[in-house]
């Protein structure tokens, strides 16, 4: 899902960079010193999750998991995902340096949206049975928003990308379903083993 | 209190512990040079100037030892992806389902291919020229917000351990005959795998925080690295400025 270097137009890159800078600044403002080790480790988990490829037919896909990061981190998902995406660009070759801002926006805006919705519903109700289902829907929503934002970034970069944007959305339909299933399964496991993880602060 | 990375030693350590070609350039200069050239390459609109930029970036990376064994594989994967993009970007299909290859679309696709390759090879300057901890220290010296740099340094510090933990879990699962597929069983197994990885990470982050507090951590990290500008940095900076200027001049003339 990462958009690659060299594809997007200069205005889209600049706009994405500015939006990402604003989001990261707000996320850092909300980040306590004591929460830095936890956020860094979740950033590392986000990076590691991208190493996992699942076979679909002749090809394979890798998970995004930005919905899960948003649920666990809220607004601080912005800096966490920026760092995760920077490492993915430099160490795994996913994405790129000039598209870092745009990729941060298309991953973080859905993450924060899902995180805020989930935290509002979860506050004060750690053992709720709806949580895995809610997280699953959140995973689908985050993946769908990520793909839609990626398609919008392509369309703003030129009419030549109309077919690419359509293909991007179609090819990621199975990824959306997988994201929902995996996010729901992770939250179900965490709720069973350590429900205190979901005593979440306000987003 | 805002966390910062600061030096505890006055004696300079020359940009790293060894003195191979990749350590000769000051990390701050390398970051600034890479960002400046990336901006120039994104702005280029002529296939010739883009091709020259790609060749120069590749030659510099090779000469300075910034390519590693992953670089050719990444270039191959990128170009496979771009080949897959060709029918979507360059081919035009009209209302009667007849397809054609307009010249402007071909030119657009060629520009896209050359620019994407140039930028990938440029990213190798940072990926191969710096380790992530050094990059974090260099960014904070360049004025990057201290919290963000701390987040990056800590992520880099714990990435290897976490990736090892993940590989061990995956190897154990594969030895039991598990193959990750797009089905419900795989998703449940992944839920347990990623959930336990997350729980271990959360527990570990609590231990790290307590250990750091026991050592007197007050939101600050200490780095022994002292970066010092050398003649190699002056040569590198001059080269980047000259190349960027010539490429932009080419664009203006052609």
Account of the 3D structure:
- The complex is a heterodimer of chains A (203) and B (254).
- Chain A has helices at residues 10-30, 36-49, 66-73, 77-92, 100-122, 131-157, 162-171, 173-193; strands at residues 53-56, 59-62.
- Chain A has 203 residues and is mostly helical.
- In chain A, strands 1-2 form a two-stranded antiparallel ribbon.
- In chain A, β1 (53-56) and β2 (59-62) form a beta hairpin.
- With 254 residues, chain B is mainly alpha-helical.
- Chain B has eight helices and four strands; from the N terminus they run βαααββααααβα.
- Chain B has a two-stranded parallel sheet with strand order 1-4. Chain B has a two-stranded antiparallel ribbon with strand order 2-3.
- In chain B, a hairpin with a 5-residue loop joins β2 (92-93) and β3 (99-100).
- Chain B is flat.
- The interface between A and B is large, with 69 and 74 residues.
Question: What is the radius of gyration of chain B computed over CA atoms, rounded to a whole number of angstroms?
Answer: 23 Å
What is the makeup of the main sheet of chain A?
Answer: 2 strands, antiparallel
Low-confidence stretches of chain A: none
**Strand portion of chain A, in percent?**
under 5%
Strand order of the largest sheet of chain B: 1-4
Question: What's the overall average pLDDT of chain B, rounded?
Answer: 81
Number of strands of chain B: 4
What characteristic shape of chain B results from the CA principal axes? flat
Shape of chain A: globular
Q: Give the fraction of residues assigned to helices of chain B.
A: 55-70%
Using a beta-carbon cutoff below 8 angstroms, give the protein chain pair with the largest interface and the number of residues from each chain: A-B, 69 and 74 residues
Q: For the terminal residues of chain A, how far apart are their CA atoms? A: 26 Å
Using only CA atoms, what is the Rg of chain A? 16 Å
How do the strands of the widest beta sheet of chain A line up side by side? 1-2
Order of helices and strands of chain A: HHEEHHHHHH
Helix content of chain A: 55-70%
Oligomerization? heterodimer
How widely separated are the two ends of chain B?
54 Å
């Amino acid at each position: 899902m990462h958009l690659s270097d060299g594809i997007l137009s200069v205005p889209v890159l600049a706009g994405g960079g500015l939006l990402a800078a604003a989001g990261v600044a707000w996320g850092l403002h909300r980040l306590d010193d004591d929460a830095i080790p936890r956020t860094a480790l979740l950033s590392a988990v986000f990076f590691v999750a991208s190493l996992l490829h699942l076979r679909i037919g002749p090809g394979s896909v890798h998970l995004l998991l930005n919905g899960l990061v948003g649920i666990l981190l809220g607004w601080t998902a912005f800096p966490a995902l920026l760092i995760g995406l920077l490492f993915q660009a430099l160490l795994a070759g996913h994405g790129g340096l000039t598209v870092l801002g745009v990729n941060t926006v298309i991953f973080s805006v859905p993450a924060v949206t899902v995180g805020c919705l989930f935290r509002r519903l979860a506050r004060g109700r750690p053992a709720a049975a709806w949580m895995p289902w809610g997280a699953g829907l959140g995973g689908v929503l985050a993946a769908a928003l990520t793909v839609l934002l990626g398609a919008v970034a392509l369309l703003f970069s030129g009419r030549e990308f109309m077919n690419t944007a359509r293909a991007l959305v179609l090819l990621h339909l199975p990824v959306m379903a997988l994201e929902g299933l995996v996010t729901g399964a992770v939250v179900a496991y965490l709720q069973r083993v350590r429900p205190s993880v979901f005593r979440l602060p306000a987003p | 209190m805002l966390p910062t990375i600061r030096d505890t030693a006055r004696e300079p350590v020359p940009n790293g512990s060894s003195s191979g070609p990749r350590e000769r350039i000051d990390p701050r200069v390398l970051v600034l040079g890479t960002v400046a050239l990336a901006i120039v390459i994104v702005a280029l609109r002529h296939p010739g100037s883009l091709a020259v930029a790609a060749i120069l970036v590749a030659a510099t990376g090779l000469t300075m030892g910034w390519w590693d064994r992953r670089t050719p594989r990444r270039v191959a994967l990128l170009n496979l992806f771009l080949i897959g993009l060709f029918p979507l970007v360059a081919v035009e299909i009209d209302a009667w389902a007849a397809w054609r290859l307009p010249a402007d679309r071909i030119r657009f696709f060629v520009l896209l291919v050359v620019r994407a390759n140039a930028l990938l090879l440029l990213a190798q300057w940072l990926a191969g020229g710096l380790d992530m901890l050094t990059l974090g220290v260099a960014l904070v010296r360049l004025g990057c917000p201290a919290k963000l740099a701390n987040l990056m340094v800590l992520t880099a510090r714990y990435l290897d351990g976490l990736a090892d933990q993940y590989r061990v879990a995956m190897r154990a699962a594969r030895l039991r005959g598990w193959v990750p597929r797009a089905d419900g069983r795989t998703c449940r197994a992944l839920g347990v795998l990623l959930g336990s990885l997350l729980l271990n990470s959360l527990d570990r982050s609590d231990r790290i925080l307590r250990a750091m507090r026991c050592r007197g951590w007050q939101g600050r990290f200490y780095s022994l690295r002292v970066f010092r500008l050398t003649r190699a940095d002056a040569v590198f900076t001059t080269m980047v400025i000259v190349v960027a200027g010539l490429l932009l001049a080419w664009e203006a003339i052609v």
